[in-house]
Amino acid sequence: MDGRFHAIAEQLLLIERELRVQGWWDETPPSPEALRSVEPFSVDTLDFHQWLQWVFLARMKHILEQDLPLPGASGILEMAEMVYADRPVESLGLRNALKKFDQLIVGAR
């Protein structure tokens, strides 16, 4: 098991918490078609917060539960900074959580 798994799991919980605090957590999943997007961050079918909840968090949970290799890179913060450029204060907690996630992913290199 990768030594970062515990810290990453905690960070994923913080990301979820921030989505919930901001009201960016959906109770109803997007359509199966929307989840099949092949575009980065599913920009053609999902809002960024939906992608975080339904794609990113789900994939990372699967990786951790199955003890699979972690991604070799992460640029989620860059996308969040673009998406939330007009809401810098409101998105600060989420952006900080995503920044820490990115740092944990690249930390082993």
Structure report:
It comes from Pseudomonas quebecensis. The model has no long low-confidence stretch (mean pLDDT 95). The protein has helices at 5-21, 32-35, 48-65, 76-83, 92-106. The protein has a single domain (5-27, 49-106), classed as Up-down Bundle (de novo design (two linked rop proteins)). With 109 residues, it is an all-alpha fold. It has five helices and no strands. Helices cover 57% and strands 0% of the residues.
Short description:
This protein is an all-alpha fold. Helices cover 57% and strands 0% of the residues.
What are the segments in which pLDDT stays under 50 over at least 5 consecutive residues? none
End-to-end span in angstroms?
16 Å
Tell me, briefly, the overall form. Answer: globular
How many β strands by DSSP?
A: 0
Q: For the residues shown, what is the average pLDDT?
A: 95
Overall number of domains: 1
The string of secondary-structure elements, in order, is: HHHHH
- Helix percent band: 55-70%
Biggest pleated sheet: none
Strand content: under 5%
CA-atom Rg in angstroms: 14 Å
The CATH architecture designation is: Up-down Bundle
